[in-house]
Amino acid sequence: MSADPPVEIRGLSKWFGAFRALDGIDLTIGAAERLVICGPSGSGKSTLIRTINALESFQEGEIRVGGVRLTREPAAVRAIRLQVGMVFQQFNLFPHMTVLENCALPLRRVRGLAPETARDRAMSYLDKVRIPEQADKYPAQLSGGQQQRVAIARALAMEPRLMLLDEPTSALDPEMVKEVLDTMVALAADGMTMAVVTHEMGFARHFATREIFMDQGRIIEQGPTEAFFADPREERTRTFLRQVLRRD
Amino acid sequence: MNFADNIDYPPVLRRPTVFLPILVVLFLGLLRADAVDWPVARAVLSGMGLAPGPSLAMPVAAGLAALIGANLWIVTGLRTRWQVWAVWAELALLLAVFFVSFNLSYAFIQRKIWILLSVGLVNTLLISACSIVFAFVLALIGAIAKLSSNGLALGVANFYTSLFRGIPLLMQIYLIYLGLPQVGIVVDAIPAGIAALSLCYGAYMTEIFRGGIESIPRGQWEAARALGLRPGDTLFRVILPQAMRVIIPPTGNQFIAMLKDSSLVSVVGVWELMYLARTQGQSEFRHIEMMITASLIYWAFSIALEMIQARVERHFGRDHVR
């Protein structure tokens, strides 16, 4: 492991045509930090975490992941994607493969593990998210919560330094949200560095070590979780928190 | 039957307002067509010891209409599965009667069938099978090129699909067989035919493959990339196996069409099924015999292709069981 922080972002800006999606973002994510990014829809929070593993391009600024500077070079992108695990709102499991094959394929094809080793490792991560008994089922046979836990296991099995979770519970039925959040808490206990985009503010409150509030492509406010919730400095943050916390 | 609603509509044909007019129309039609003079009617009447004549026109038409009506009534009452079989059997019987009415010489067919099968069918299958493989590969390459951001590949693929979809297959065969020698490339008839069919169907199928690949959600690409899969693995292990579900039905269509379009290769003198059917029939003025025999052979192999297609569809649809 290098001593470089998992993520360093300097002056990051991105445009979709004339629309400025990200506007001069500066952000460092330290090892074992659990960052929650919140903000209204269209504020750029998903775009921000998707630029970190090059799923989105950017026009200005610099991103370093574990000290590797993100360019459009294949080697750089590859080196970074190997360090970053990603979990999507829509799970994005491969529907034509069983749960086990979903987790084992990248281990074989990217990490170059032998088939048996890959299967064993995939199985141990399915154990970790507590669904080993579903290993031979197809994703469509699982509930949303189970699918998302498989997606987490698939990303974890690659043993990344950092996990990015893009609204991991937004597509789930309410009764399944908790099992996914519990899985994330278990990850946190193992010291995984995580950046999570979520609207689950009640969860964020006890899960995150640091909160970020974004609006219109900018980081409006950030701080340690307690201070962030107890005493937000910015009016926009206060308004946003009032709106999302009313439900809790 | 994924598309059937959970409602039992009354069978349309069994409604009196539909069924009775059908009977009337049948009766009038049979009367007008002089059903009493049909060979079948004559045979039945003489069997009953009656002399066919205009006086029996009404009873014969009524009897036939009643027979057809009863058949219709019985078939509409069957379960869906048996209905399909019954309809197939009856339509096949009608087709057979139609063919028999040509007074075919079965002795002639028997004499010629061996050359049709041993030379004609073998060549047709050889040309079709090779063309299917090459067209599949061309389509895959074409689709990847069309989806790439490489201007060179995109340009070549666009020009290719435009040209080979845009000019008649017959022209393509002539261009390859008669045109290429002009620039010093001499191609035998069979390779020329295979090349033309592959290029033509590859062009059509390029669009099918492209559509299939584009139908896979972006999230699948993103997940594969985020996991670090290389472009080849992303395409061949994640995207294409899913796209196959969309690609196979129209591709099966193309293969069936290609099987029959292989008959166009006869213009450059390849001894395939159609060519032999035409030339063998010519010598004794028994065209119809050979044409019908060749048609039935084409049909049999189309059915075989349909069955293979159903099999492959099942294979790639297995993740959709719930």
Structure characterization notes:
The complex is a heterodimer of chains A (248) and B (322). With 248 residues, chain A is of the alpha/beta class. Chain A has a six-stranded mixed beta sheet, with helices on both faces. A four-stranded antiparallel beta sheet of chain A has the order 2-1-4-5, with helices on one face. In chain A, a hairpin with a 2-residue loop joins β1 and β2. In chain A, α5 runs parallel beside α6. Chain B is flat. The chains are: A alpha/beta (248), B mainly alpha (322). At the A-B interface, α2, β6, α3 and α5 of A face α9 and α10 of B.
What key phrases describe this protein's structure?
heterodimer, A: alpha/beta, about 40% helix, B: about 325 residues, mainly alpha, MetI-like fold, 2 domains, 12 helices, about 75% helix
Q: Compute the number of strand runs of chain A.
A: 10
Low-confidence stretches of chain B: none
Number of domains of chain B: 2
Count of DSSP-assigned helices of chain A? 9
Q: Overall pLDDT of chain B, averaged?
A: 91
Shape summary of chain A: globular
Provide a compact summary of the structure:
The complex is a heterodimer of chains A (about 250) and B (about 325). Chain A is α/β, with parallel strands linked by helices. Helices cover about 40% and strands about 25% of the residues of chain A.
Task: Tell me the layout of helices and strands.
The complex is a heterodimer of chains A (248) and B (322).
Chain A: E1 7-16, E2 19-29, E3 34-38, H1 45-52, E4 60-65, E5 68-69, H2 74-83, E6 84-87, H3 99-109, H4 115-128, H5 144-157, E7 162-166, H6 174-189, E8 193-197, H7 201-207, E9 210-215, E10 218-224, H8 225-230, H9 235-245
Parallel strand pairs in A: 3-8, 3-9, 6-7, 7-8
Antiparallel strand pairs in A: 1-2, 1-4, 4-5, 9-10
Chain B: H1 16-32, H2 39-47, H3 57-77, H4 80-100, H5 106-147, H6 151-166, H7 169-179, H8 189-214, H9 218-226, H10 231-261, H11 273-283, H12 287-316
Helix pairs in contact in B: 1-3, 5-6, 5-8, 5-11, 5-12, 6-8, 7-8, 8-10, 9-10, 10-12, 11-12
